[in-house]
Amino acid sequence: xxxxxxxxxxxxxxxxxxxxxxxxxxxxxxxxxxxxxxxxxxxxxxxxxxxxxxxxxxxxxxxxxxxxxxxxxxxxxxxxxxxxxxxxxxxxxxxxxxxxxxxxxxxxxxxxxxxxxxxxxxxxxxxxxxxxxxxxxxxxxxxxxxxxxxxxxxxxxxxxxxxxxxxxxxxxxxxxxxxxxxxxxxxxxxxxxxxxxxxxxxxxxxxxxxxxxxxx
Length: 216
Ligand SMILES: *[C@@H]1O[C@H](CO)[C@@H](O)[C@H](O)[C@H]1NC(C)=O
Ligand SMILES: *[C@@H]1O[C@H](CO)[C@@H](O)[C@H](O)[C@H]1NC(C)=O
Ligand SMILES: *[C@@H]1O[C@H](CO)[C@@H](O)[C@H](O)[C@H]1NC(C)=O
Ligand SMILES: *[C@@H]1O[C@H](CO)[C@@H](O)[C@H](O)[C@H]1NC(C)=O
Hints:
- By secondary structure, this protein is mainly β.
- The chain has a single domain (7-209), classed as Jelly Rolls.
- The chain is built from one helix and 19 strands.
- The chain has one helix at 21-25, and strands spanning 2-8, 14-19, 32-36, 43-45, 48-52, 59-62, 66-70, 83-87, 91-96, 101-109, 124-127, 132-137, 147-155, 159-166, 172-174, 176-181, 190-192, 199-201, 208-213.
- The strands form four sheets. A nine-stranded mixed β-sheet has the order 2-1-19-13-10-16-3-5-4. Strands 6-9-14-11-12 form a five-stranded antiparallel β-sheet, with no helix packed on it.
- It starts with a strand and ends with a strand.
- The protein binds 2-acetamido-2-deoxy-beta-D-glucopyranose (NAG) (4 copies).
- One 2-acetamido-2-deoxy-beta-D-glucopyranose is lined by residues 123, 168.
């Protein structure tokens, strides 16, 4: 059994839900974007193939100028962090969505050291048309060398636009992005809210951020 705790971006809401790994494993997502940003080749990570952002036919990168940084150093936390696309102005990735509904959106960040730009001091803002996923995040205030963020977003149109907004004269980067369909039964619309402890419905309209998982 896996226990997932989710926190809404706009209010303090915790829901606990339990699911069986068996039914999850057999699910084939309709939308399944695994994108290695700035990479020149496919990257296999945890048994899945991430495709370079320039080579995916259903993905477009709009606006802004960008450069690529990469590292072959053995200190890179995992293969997915070997490359990054670095934006110097506002830019966005547009994903064509085949099936509306809830999707995982996963973002991977690792400020590759010794690149021409000081990525660790980047100020990172990421928004969708509806939600702010990251607001001026910077590794200078973060106790970790890399960061993984996961959101569950109900997409109600035929595309998802992720816009990356640098601020304060800094650059911004991203190493990898996933946009993957979630089976509907995984997130029931009505679940028990732990704080406040009353039934809460309307979860389908919110963006949820996964904050912890896996019972020990
Ligand atoms: C990269 O992966 C994609 C999707 O799995 C595949 O279609 C493509 O042939 C791969 N490209 C190379 C160069 O291996
Ligand atoms: C940063 O992480 C290290 C190792 O996990 C820990 O020992 C330290 O207390 C943390 N520092 C802060 C400010 O959270
Ligand atoms: C903006 O950049 C300047 C110079 O690098 C720095 O002193 C200041 O703290 C930054 N402000 C924010 C809000 O990050
Ligand atoms: C997504 O939102 C639409 C419109 O609000 C709703 O009808 C649908 O049930 C939601 N889907 C999920 C999986 O939450």
